[in-house]
Amino acid sequence: MGRFDLVEKAWAAGCRVALLDAGQDVAGLARQAVADGADLLAVAGGDGTQALVAEVAARHDLPFVVIPAGTRNHFALDLGLDRDDPAAVLEALTHGVELRIDLGYAADRVFVNNASFGTYASVVTDPAYRNAKARTTLRTLPGLLTGEDAPRLRTRADRTYVDGLQALLVSNYPYGRAVDAAHPGRRKRLDSGLLGVVCVRVGNTAQAARVVRGPRSGGLIRLSAGVVVIEADTDALPVGIDGEHVVLPSPVVCRSAPGALRVRVPRRRPGTPRAGGAAADWPRVARLALGRPFPDREKDPDGSGFIAAWAAGFAFGFALRRYRTGDGQEGPDRTAEFARNLGGLLAAISLLVFGAVLLGPALEHLSWRIILYAVLSLTIVRMLPVALSLAGSRLRPPTVAYIGWFGPRGLASVVLALLVVEEHVHGMELVGRVVAVTVGLSVLLHGISAVALAERYGRWHEKTAATTPDLREGTPSPEAPARRRFGPLDKPEM
C-alpha cells in the first residue's frame, strides 16, 4: 500500500485510517468505527475482506468504498474500478457517485462475488490456492471431482432441482463464464436481484478434464435464481465465501439482497461495462420460443400454459359446435361476443400492469440503442413483413401502410418477455427493457395517431371508392365456410 501512498492520500481526503495487523478482526474494527460515528466505510484488501466490511456497511446503511488491494479483486473489477491504481478510487470520497448494488447471502454470511460448494470449496482450502489460484485449480479439480471423497450435492434453484453434483458455485449475479473459482469471468451488473448458479456433474476423469478445459462442457449446468438451497448427506458443508473457507450447517440457503449495499465509486471508471446489460443467451431464448425443454429441466418439466390454453379452447369450441343452447341462438355466437369482451378487459388490465410495473424500471436504463431498436421495430421490422405478406392482394399502398402501422399488437410481446423473465435466461434484463420500451412507444405513438390516421384513411377510401368501382378494398370478403353443427340428437352423415 505504501507504493500507492494510500494512507497519506486517505488522510488528505479527511479519512480516519486504521492499519490492520495480521489476524485482526476487520469486521469488528468496522463495527467499532460505526459506533464512533463514521459516516462512510472503506477498506483496502481482497474480496474476502471487502465482503466482511460490506456486511457492516449494509447493516447500518452506510456508503462503502472498495479499494482494490488484494490478489484478484474481482469485486472491484465488476464495479469498473482501476485495479492497477488503488489510490484512484479515493476520488470517490470527494467527487464520487453512489450506486445501489445487491449482496449475496450464504446462510448469514455475506458474499460480494460468490460462494463455492463441494469441490470448489475444497480447492479454496488448499494451502497453495492463495498464491497460485489458477494453477492450483487446474491441478486439483479433476481428481477432486472423481475421487472416492468427491462430494455429492443437491440443489434447488427456485423451481429447478438438480442432484448428483460434485461442485456448485453461487454468484452475486451470473458470470459471463464460470468454470473455476480463479477465473470466473465478469458480471455485467450487480443490481438485478438474481443469483447465478453453476453446477458441475461428471461421471469420470475425462468428463472432469473437459469441465476444466472449457465452459461448453456437458458436465456444466448454468441457472439463475432468486433463492438457492444447497444440501448434502452431511450435517455441515465446507463453503468458500469469496475465497475464504468457512463451514456452514446443511442445508445452506443462498439468497440475494437487492440494493442492500450503497457503494461510492469515482465518476470515471476505466473498466465500466457497456450499458445494456449482459448479452442474451440466444440459444436458450430460441429453445423457449420453440417450446423445447431445457437440459436442466429434464427432471422437473413444466407444461406450457399457451398449449394448455389452446387445447382447452379447442375442446370447448368443439363442444359448442356439437350442442345448441336450446333457445334458438347457437352457443358459439354468444360465446364469441363474451370472449371478445373478456379479451378486451384482460388486455386493458395487462397494459395497465405493464405501464405501472415494467415500463418505469426500463426507462431508468434507457439508451439510444434501445430507442433506435424500438423505432425500427415499430416501422421497418414489423411493417416490411406485413407488406410482403400482402403482396399480390392488389391492396393500395395506403391500405398496406395502414395495416402495417396498426395491425400487429404488442401485448403478445409482453407475454413472451415474461416467459423469458420466468425462465431466468441470461441477458433477460436487456430483453425485458427492449420489449418494455418498444411496447410503451407503440402504445404512445399508436394511441396518438389512431384518430387522425383513421379519419385520413377513411377520407381516402371514400374518395378512391367513388372513382374506382373495382377497388380491392371495397370488395366484400367471402364468408369463411363453417362446419356443420350437430345437435345433441344429430348424427353425422356417413
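[next item in queue]
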Amino acid sequence: MSCSTSSPGDLEPPLFTLLTPRLLLRTKLPCDAPSMFAILSSPHYQLHSPQPTSEAGSLRWIDLSREWFHARPLRKGASLTVVDLSTNEVIGEVGMGGIRGVKGEDKGRGGDAGIVLDERWCGKGLAVEALEKSLSWCFEAEGETGDEGGGVEWIEMGTSKENAPMRGVMERVFGSVGTEAPMPESRAGGRDAAIEVSYEFTKEEWEREGGARDKAKAWLEKKRRA
C-alpha cells in the first residue's frame, strides 16, 4: 500500500525526513493508517505482539505521533513511517516513545525504541538500516535538554523471547545482551508466562568506536557486498 510522498516538501506542515540507501523515514501522515492497520493486524505481527487493533486506532496513533513531533521532536516521542524508496510503499514504522528521565538515577533522558515492518520486507536488512539511522538521530538530535527535547542519553528496546529475528538483530548485529523478564500483561495479549527480552544502549555505547552503530554499519556494508 502507498501513501503518496514523492514531494515531501510540498506537504503542510513540512515533513521531517531521514534517508537511507533504500528507505525514507518520515513524519507520519493520516493516509498511512490503512497500511499500518494491515501490518499491525497481520498474523506475522500478532504472533509476537497480540494486541487489538483497528484502522481507527492506527489513525489515532498517527495523530498523537504527529502532535508529539510537531510540538517538539523527542520531547515525548518520535515515531516515523518507513517508506520503501523503490516502490513508495509504506512498509512500517520506527522510532521512540515514552521519553522520560529515570527517577533516582543519573541516566538522563531516554525512552523505548521499536520497529515494525511488513512481513514482505523482512529478511532484507531493512530493520537494521532503519534502526541505525533513526537511533543515531535520537542520540544526536540538536535542541535543548531536559523536558524541552534534544537528543536522548539511553534507549531501551524489548521484544518477545520467541521473536528470534528481532533478537538476532539486537544480539548478532548490534552486539547487545538482553535481559529476560515476564512480559507486562498489557503487552502479553493473554499469553500465559510470556517472556520479554529487553536491550539497552547508552549514547556512549552507541557512538564509541566499535560500538553498536559501527557494528550495524559494518553488517550493512557486508550485506550490500554479498
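[queue empty]
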